[in-house]
Write a structure and sequence with these properties.
Length: 491
């Protein structure tokens, strides 16, 4: 329900729906002189054409071409969301102004609170929370980069994608919260909402999981978690959320050094890794080991259609050595490459040159860089019941100098996309691509163009066979544990 136009009564706590849909944003501590977080946010909001941006700093009359106000209460228009980049010692007076202005949410980029280990700073956090509850607004953070909501054009970094998508990401880390949307943009991943929540003084991981389990704009949930505030509540929230939507979790602080860093980062006392892992297995959350693997798993969940429940795959590509390497990488990670029957091999040999080729799975022939040959191979192999997915790889990078122009976007990529779409429709088996990026600059422009074309056509692209296999093993195990295999709907 949209409650943005409700009466703004003091002490009435706004919903997260309201927090994610601000009409006016104040940036406290913005300056025209230093390229700090505050200036970056003002730049970013202007770039995203957010409708009402209010820099606040008593030292200046103008910041980045916008009128600058001496205080929050001097702003003539409505302010729903406040972004704070001032010293921790000054925040209590600011929160009084937030209550007077009847804001809905306050995001503290400001650090120097409980994560310092200082008892006085922890007491300051408690005083902030008291003021927030009395004033009827929510606190995001402190010590975080806050909110990224493309639909609302609420951004916290430059060049953020403004096209919304079905993935939500909750993150104790501000860096991960900014990097995930940017790193994954070329892979076709788009986000409904990203929340960096830092010290989790008010809004925390459990509340966010509860919210995204019900959010109609979110189909897949990703999370970076160092520690949790309330273990029992988190267990309930994760279990209930994972029962409704896929949840992908990267747990930070798994080593002694990582645990020390996590405490210094967000004052998180990280839970037992064994207990956390057992909980994720029990509720069927998908665990990953780093941000890159999270992107691979999200790519599989988002674009592999239909999502298989079996690990047996047909591997197709050019290059004998790369095909051997790809086979080893797949099976080392848990995907299986079963041998084709003599009958299937004989049928393939009728259409492909025998000399220098491999027909047993992997299928490796020189003309598999010709779209018509790709089509023939997929039609033949698609009738094999024990094969559950196609994996097409380019073990070397032939799009530039290897291909002598024959493997360009127009000559190869677009026709290949056409035959792959047809094969997907006829066989009902998903097609995944492993496109190893070139090592030099010469082919990078053409590589990126090829990647973009495959992604825009709806195909999942991975940068190595190892990454593809690892992600698919995790996703297939998750899919096989569910009562049905429909998977998250593709928007």
């Amino acid at each position: 329900m949209d409650t943005r136009n409700r009466p703004e009564e003091p002490g009435v706590t706004p919903t997260l729906d309201e927090v994610f849909c601000p009409r006016g944003v104040a940036v406290v501590g913005a300056s025209p002189l230093n390229l700090s977080f505050a200036e970056m946010v003002v730049h970013s909001l202007k770039e995203a054409q957010f409708p009402a941006i209010f820099p606040v700093n008593p030292k200046y009359k103008e910041v980045l071409g916008l009128p600058c106000y001496a205080s929050l209460t001097d702003i003539p228009g409505a302010v729903d969301h406040v972004i704070v980049n001032i010293p921790a010692e000054s925040v209590l007076k600011l929160l009084d102004d937030c209550a007077a202005k009847r804001v809905k949410s306050v995001h503290f980029f400001t650090a120097g609170f409980g994560e310092t280990g200082d008892a006085g700073r922890a007491e300051l956090e408690r005083a902030m929370l008291v003021k927030a509850k009395a004033g009827g607004f929510r606190i995001i953070g402190p010590n975080c980069v806050g909110l990224y909501v493309p639909k609302s054009r609420l951004v916290n970094s430059l060049n953020s994608p403004l096209e919304p998508g079905p993935i939500a990401f909750i993150s104790q880390s501000g860096g991960h919260a900014q990097n995930l949307p940017n790193y994954s943009q070329a892979r076709g991943l788009r986000f409904s909402k990203v929340v960096s929540y830092g010290n989790a003084l008010d809004v925390n991981e459990s509340e966010l999981l509860d919210y995204f389990s019900r959010d109609p704009e979110t189909e897949i949930i990703a999370a970076y978690i160092e520690g949790v505030k309330d273990g029992q509540r988190f267990m309930r929230a994760l279990a209930e959320t994972a029962a409704q939507k896929p949840v992908v979790i990267y747990k930070g602080g798994r080593t002694e050094a990582g645990r020390r860093a996590a405490y210094g980062h967000t004052a998180s006392m990280t839970s037992s890794v064994a207990i956390f892992d057992a909980l994720c297995r029990q509720v069927k959350a998908i665990q990953v080991d780093d941000l890159e693997e999270m992107i691979d798993v999200l790519t599989a969940l988002r674009f592999v259609r239909p999502l298989p429940r079996d690990t047996r795959a047909a591997l197709m590509g050019g290059g004998g050595g790369p095909s051997v390497l790809a086979s080893d990488e797949m099976e080392n990670e848990g995907l299986r490459v079963p041998c084709f029957s003599p009958a299937v091999q004989a049928e393939l040999k009728q259409s492909f040159p025998v000399a220098g080729s491999i027909f047993i799975n992997p299928l490796d022939t020189a003309n598999l860089i010709i779209p018509g040959a790709i089509s023939t191979a997929m039609q033949v192999i698609g009738r094999v019941p024990e094969i559950h997915m196609f994996i097409y790889h380019l073990g070397f990078h032939p799009i530039s100098h290897w291909g002598l122009g024959r493997l360009s976007l127009e000559n190869f990529v677009k026709p290949a996309i056409g035959v792959m779409k047809e094969a997907l429709q006829k066989t009902g088996k998903p097609i995944l691509l492993a496109l190893r990026p070139p090592q030099g600059l010469e082919g990078m422009t053409e590589f990126l163009a090829a990647q973009q074309a495959f992604v825009e056509a709806g195909f999942p692209v991975f940068y190595s066979m190892r990454q593809l296999a690892r992600a698919m093993v995790r996703v297939i195990a998750w899919n096989g544990s569910r009562p049905d295999s429909r998977g998250p709907a593709k928007s």
